[in-house]
Amino acid sequence: MYGWNGKILRVNLSENKVVVQNYDLDFALKFVGGRGFAAKILWDELKPGIDPFSAENKLVIAAGPLTGLPGPSLGKLVIAAKSPLTGGYGDGNIGSFAAVYLRKAGYDAVVVEGKAKEPVYLYVENENASLLSAEGLWGLTTFQTEAKLKEIHGRNSGILSIGPAGEKLVRYATVVSQEGRAGGRPGMGAVMGSKNLKAVVFKGSLDIPLAEPEEYHSLVSRCYETIRSRDGYDFWVRQGTMMTIEWCQENSVLPTRNFREGMFDFYRLIDGYAMEAAKTKRRGCPNCNMSCGNVVLDSEAKESELDYENVAMLGSNIGLGHLGKVSILNRMADEFGLDTISLGNVLGFAMEATEKGLIRDGIEWGDFRRAKDLVEDIAYRRGLGNLLAEGVMRISQKIGGGSEKWAMHVKGLEVSAYDCHTVPGMALAFATSSIGAHHKEAWVISWEIRTDRAGYTRAKVEKVIEFQRIRGGMFECLVACRLPWIELGFELDWYPKLLKAATGQTLTLEKMFNEVADRIYALIRAFWIREYGNSWSKTIDYPPPRWFEEPLTKGPYKGAKLDQVKFEELLRLYYEMRGWDSRGVPTRATFNRLGLSDVAEELEKYVSLT
Prior knowledge:
Elements: E1 7-12, E2 17-22, H1 25-31, H2 35-45, E3 59-62, E4 76-82, E5 89-95, H3 97-104, E6 109-113, E7 120-125, E8 128-133, H4 142-153, E9 158-161, H5 164-167, E10 175-177, E11 181-183, H6 188-194, E12 197-203, H7 213-229, H8 233-239, H9 244-250, H10 272-278, E13 279-283, E14 293-297, E15 303-306, H11 308-314, H12 323-336, H13 340-355, H14 368-380, H15 384-388, H16 392-399, E16 409-410, E17 413-414, H17 424-432, H18 445-451, H19 458-478, H20 483-488, H21 494-503, H22 509-532, H23 546-549, H24 564-578, H25 588-593, H26 597-603
Parallel strand pairs: 1-6, 7-12
Antiparallel strand pairs: 1-2, 3-4, 3-6, 4-5, 7-8, 9-12, 10-11, 13-14, 14-15, 16-17
Helix pairs in contact: 2-22, 7-21, 11-13, 12-14, 17-19, 19-22, 19-24
C-alpha cells in the first residue's frame, strides 16, 4: 500500500506484550483512518456494559493516510475509547509531533488494552516498541512529564502524556502534548490513568510510502501558497480563534454565567485584542502555516496557550473578566490534564449551585482565587473537587434540586462555548454530535446567523449533516485540521487530490461524505445504542432544558429561547435524512447500504431494528 503503513501496534499492558497487526487495503478504503479505524476497532472488540475504567476498555490512538506528511495542518491524530464521562463512544483529536512520529515509526494506529501492574509508558521507535517504567513520572504534571521524557529520548520525540487528573480518574481528563495541545475531552486521559499508562513516546525516521511523490509535493506547495494568499490570513495569524470572543458577543451567543446569557459585560477584557496585548508567541501543530495557538504571559508571568473555547468557558461562563487570570486557570488545566471546556462548565455549574444553595462552601461568580483552588482540588479529587471531577451530569444527579435543568451537557459531555437560546441549528449540532455536546463536528452557527437565524428549517438540518460529513467524517478520518477550510475558505477538493497522490486511490468528496462519513456515523451510533439497549430514545438527543425553558434576560434577543416542539421536528427531519428511525436508530436498510450488515445483526441482539 501507499500512504498507509498497513500496520497497527497492539499493546497488552496486563501481559506486558507488544505485537504488530497488519491490515489490508479493503479495511483502509472502508474506514480510511483516524476516527474510522477507532470506531471500527472499539465496536468489534468492546463488550457492551463494561466499566470504562476497567482493563477491558481499550484505548485507540489512530492516524490517517495524510497524517505526518507535508501539507496543510496534517499533524493530527485521534484518541478514542469508551468514555468514562458519557458511557458511550468517546474520542478527540490532538495536533502534536506524536502524530508525525507515530507514522514515521511505521504504524498507523496503536491499540492499548489491559492494565499495567505499576505505572509505565510506551516507547515506540522505528517499528520497535517497549513498555518502560514510569515510576519517576507518576504524579508529575504533563509539562514536567514531557520535559523529563525529552531529556531521556531527545527533543525529536512526539509525546502524549497525562497529568494528575488522568491518574486520579477525573472523568474529563485529557491527553496533553507540547505544553498546550490537548485532546480527548470525553475522558481519554482518565482511560490512560486507569491503565497505569502515564505517557506514549513516538520516534521515527522511516519514510511514509507515497504513490506519486512529485505530484504530492507539488500539490502541497500550491496548498500552502493558497492558504497564505487568502483574505483574512493576516488577521488570523494575529488572533486565531480568539477573534470569536468579539463575534460571539456581537451575536449574543457568548456563554455567560453557565449559559444563562449570550452576552458578557466585560468581554473586551478577555477578547482577541486583549490577547494580542499579552501575546508573546504562536504555537501550532506540525505542518501548519496558520497556527492557532496564541501564547500569552498570564498573571503569574508564565506561558499559557489560549484559544476561544478555553477563554470563553473559563472567562465569561464563570463571570471572570480578566485575561491574565483566565490564562492561569487555562495553564493549570493543561498542566493537570483537565479539559478546559468541561472544566469551565463544571465551575459555572458549581457557582450556580452555590447561588441556589445546593452546594455549601462552594464558589461565587467570578471568584478567581476559589476557582484556582478548585482546579487543583478537582485534579487531585480533594474535598468538593472530588464531586466536581465527575462532570455536570453526575453532579446534578447527586445534588438534585432541579439542577438537571441547568446542567449544560448532552449525553454527559459538557456543551462547548456557544449559547443556543437563539440558534436552533447549532443546538441540533450539539444534540446529534457523535460524542456528546461538542462543536467540532458541525459548527453551523456562523452560517446559521448569516442566513436564517431563528428558522427551524430543512435547510438547517441539511447543513448540520453536511458539516458532520465534512468535519466529523472526512477531516477526522484523514486526520486533518478543518480550520484552513472553515476559516480561510481553503477548498475541500484539495483533499482528494492529496489523497490520490499519497495513496494512489481515488476517494471522491462524494464518496467520503455519503459513504465513508455516513458509515462511521452509523457505526458510532450503533455503539451508543448497544450500550443503552431498549432504554434508548430520542430524548437522549435533546439539548439542555435551560435553552427551552429559561429565556435570555438581556441584549437584543431578550426573551428568546428555543421552541421544543419545533426542535423536535428538526430532530425528526435529521433522523429521516440520516436513514434512522423515529428513535434515532439506523434502519437495517441504512446499515446494509453502508456495508454494515454485520453491525445490524449484532445490534439487533440489544434493540429491534426497522
